[in-house]
Amino acid sequence: MEQMLMGAIAAGWLAAGLFFFRFWRQTRDRFFLWFALSFWLEAADRLALGLMAPAAEDSPAIYSLRIVAYGLILLAIWQKNRPRPPR
Length: 87
What we know:
Structural class: mainly alpha
Number of helices: 3
Number of domains: 1
Pfam family, one: DUF5985
Shape: elongated
Keywords: Membrane, Transmembrane, Transmembrane helix
Order of helices and strands: HHH
Largest sheet: none
InterPro entries: DUF5985 (IPR046027)
């Protein structure tokens, strides 16, 4: 049952990433691309957790994926809110 739930959560993360990727293709705004990549990393994280025999959420590999995913979200927000030089 736990593996099935992890798969469903991974599918949700994947769908959210596709949603943001679609907006990136329409606007070419990197904000949406960073969010799409972040959600896809979260999907990979959940997939890896589901494939591990005992779910070891305290594994360094799992936390590394999460740190990179959340770092991409912070990068997207920072890039969107930084001041633009006058043209």
